[in-house]
Amino acid sequence: MDSLTLQNGDKLPQVGYGFWKVDPDRTAGLVQEAVKRGYRHLDCACDYGNEEQVGQGIQATLQAGDCSREDLWVTSKLWNTYHAPEHVEAACRKSLSDLQLDYLDLYLIHFPISQKFVPFEERYPPGWFHDPDAANPGMELNPVPIAETWKTMEKLVDEGLVKHIGISNFGTSLIRDLLSTARIRPSVLQVELHPYLTQEKLVKYCEMEGIAVTGFSPLGALSYLSLDMADREESVLEQSVVKAAAERTGKSPAQVVLRWGVQRGTAVIPKTEKPERLTENLSLFDFELTEQEMQAISGLNRNRRFNDPGDFCASAFNTFCPIYE
User: Fold this and answer.
1) Domains of the chain, each with CATH number or no CATH
2) Does the predicted model carry a pTM greater than 0.90?
């Protein structure tokens, strides 16, 4: 497993297992299966609704002796309703409790969207609606400056609750503003990255600033078919340049696309519930794409963003909430 070296020298495994949309009933078993097959990077979030089951899987894995806690890299994310400084630590401790861990390797601000607080005992995870039972439910925003949230995130590092802090779904302008006041710089940016959304300028800017980049939804449309947020014909795996590279290397089209992600210097967090795909998604380091193949795959860019709050919040949560230009 190759890794990305962070600012302090710590290593972020370049391929992780993403738990977004993983069935809670299968999550604990999939954690154990993934670790047995070589995964050491687990990408979680409060909003995914399965951190408790991830924690069960981690404990079973540790008790079986398949790895040590120090071998694992566990990421979680601060949900939108917990941005106020008085809620950040409690949200982190809730994730730690569910995951049955003493510390997180990485804690990210999930979205640059601050919503009205929902108490844990009222609903957890709180989701996007403030009151799902309202006659006309919607999101309720409660603006909190990113700098205020970040200062409290920094305290989590000071207290030993997390080793690294970072951001997700941020663009260059927000990152630049954050860096102007941050005492502890973000270690990692997690954003949507695939050949239809290469985000070249954002990736280059993060490289310049020493911020590692993790790409979610690295296979593009496949993550969104079940949500009716993509069409099957949008699959990058059907592109001729991807198929040609797969034929030359003897790998699958999915492996080619994931290899493109790691070869450009980013981490990737594919999701699957099929054990055989766990191994396939991890087997990316025994081949290389040529420079011509890398350029051809990057040339597929359409600036096609599947995960855009400016689209899905309006259609699914009755609230127009754009964060991208």
Assistant:
1) 11-317 (3.20.20.100)
2) yes
